[in-house]
Amino acid sequence: MPDTTIRDTSSQDAAYNYAYLDEQTKRMIRRAILKAVAVPGYQVPFGGREMPLPYGWGTGGIQVTAALIGRDDTLKVIDQGADDTTNAVSIRRFFARVAQVATTTHTGEATIIQTRHRVPETPLTDGQILVFQVPIPEPLRMLEPRETETRTLHALSEYGVMQVSLYESIARHGRIAKTYNYPVMVNGRYIMSPSPIPKFDNPKLDRSPALQLYGAGREKRIYAVPPHTPVKSLDFDDHPFEIETWTECCALCGSTESFLDEMIVDDTGKRLFVCSDTDYCESRR
Amino acid sequence: MSTTLLAPGLADLSHDAQRLFRGVLDAFSHPGRIVELRDAPAGPGTLSPAAVAFLLTFADRETPLWLEAGVDKQEVRDFLRFHAGTPIVQAREAATFAVIIGGGGEPFAGFAIGTDTYPDRAATLVIEVPALDGGRDTTWRGPGIDGAVRVAIDGLGEGFWPAWAANHALFPCGVDLVFASGSRLIALPRSVAVEA
């Protein structure tokens, strides 16, 4: 007997299809995600839709999440590591309303984590999906403005221009001065923008057991890093890649291993360093 | 006019497709992993539930489908046209998706492999096999696999793995595969090297 039960949708906003996007759009995004997983680091064009928030606020990530999410999922959304900032709160509430989905702030409990500009400090596990919001998906864009040209450079794996830009940084500053959106090589084939995460987070992308999906709404691109895939931050033999370090520890939890934000706490310019990842910090206090 | 009843498609279009998609995504993210698609619909003819589930999840009017003669039955055409609206094509190169039995002969010849600038414009082939284990032992390595994984898909032709090696060598171009048996499937994206 076919299942003819009409499921209760009373707590979902009935004005919208489940997860906001129509089924045709979700299918199109799902096909793009499959191809993105099949060619790690390659930017798959997709028919990005207008979302009920402006470009730059996570329209790409939110479309990827909408194509993924189901009633069994638990969603976590972070903005610069924090669960309680405007962007994170509004996206979390959006999916709670249109997709009846459980939400959490705990990294370990989430099945899908949508993130703006951070990777959680707590190591991710098999079965979790990390969805990045990406403003500019093309890592070569600041070096070559023409899309036809960057596309050819990727096709030919012709990445000399990127190495030259890193070399120029060393010549000018004595080190590679790029601290965020630090370019990576995925599976030895495609140079990829990891989105504007601090380079501190780059090592977490390498051979992660979680699936990483990247969505760029304005540029209409989706790309992916499957689990256990090598992700190498570009460097030189005599100038190896290094992450940021701090002499201070977190003023709230005392962590010496997490990414710290510098806060100015009074009018006299008193400074405080605290964890950028609020869930990690709270779990240690 | 045919009097046979059309087999039912997805009972709950949105939620069933979402669940099936996550199953297939799990398979693509972990090549070699056997993924059971719970509630895969039975479908028409000799199509396996996993193949039916894959097509109902991903195929629509924008994705031409190519069917091997063994599955290209009127009831299958009717079913896919009604539930997915997918155009069924004769030319392999026009197909986004295809259903193949066993993968004998030159299984990938003629299908779109994408281009160097747009490798995503490549076909995904669903290969119907008798079983996902118990066949010839192979070792898979690549993105999504922690080291190596052993897979023993049954019922593939003698020339299949050499043909796959040629397809993998085209990376980033090349076709992607889904092996379907009953309600279970294994995915093999072009990025994965197979030692047969």
Considering the chains and any ligands shown, give keywords for the structure.
heterodimer; A: 285 residues; alpha/beta; Rossmann fold; seven-stranded mixed beta sheet; three-stranded antiparallel beta sheet; 7 helices; 12 strands; disordered N terminus; B: 196 residues; 23% helix; globular
Description:
The complex is a heterodimer of chains A (about 280) and B (about 200). Chain A is α/β, with parallel strands linked by helices and about 280 residues long. Chain A has seven helices and twelve strands. In chain A, the strands form three sheets. In chain A, strands 1-9-8-5-4-2-3 form a seven-stranded mixed sheet. Chain A has a three-stranded antiparallel sheet with strand order 7-6-10. In chain A, strands 11-12 form a two-stranded antiparallel sheet. Chain B has one domain (about 15-195): Bacterial phosphonate metabolism protein PhnH (Rossmann fold, 3-Layer(aba) Sandwich), CATH 3.40.50.11310. In chain B, helix 1 packs across helix 2 (about 50-60). Chain B contains four helices and ten strands. A seven-stranded mixed sheet of chain B has the order 1-9-8-5-4-2-3. A three-stranded antiparallel sheet of chain B has the order 7-6-10.
